[in-house]
């Protein structure tokens, strides 16, 4: 937690004893304990309120998917480029899935690469720079 080891916490405690003195230290320790207790109660209250408002879906929610550390913009862009047309209307017919998903990925990649090579390079304006 915050990179604090036992030795660092002990050193902070010793410095606090010298700065605050033995008269005020119990009072400030009690205040710190109350603050930590209030923060824990607020967090539990928010969790309970969220559980009440969401209902049974709260327990089914996969919280690991919502972890911001899982956000990878390169993966999101790669998946967006792999899609052919997300707004294309899908037909009502049921198609059989391809047995090899790797093959489907390679087909999309080859089609995308062919489309990119078929494009002409962008015009260059030497006066614009």
From TrEMBL:
Subcellular location, record wording: Membrane
Principal subcellular localisation of the protein: membrane
Keywords: Membrane, Protein transport, Translocation, Transmembrane, Transmembrane helix, Transport
Signal peptide annotation: none
Membrane topology: Single-pass membrane protein
Coiled coil (UniProt feature): none
GO BP, sorted A to Z: protein transport
InterPro entries given in the database record: TatA/B/E (IPR003369)
Gene Ontology cellular component terms for the protein in this record: membrane
Region (Disordered): 82-109
Protein name: Sec-independent protein translocase TatB
Biological source species: Cryobacterium gelidum
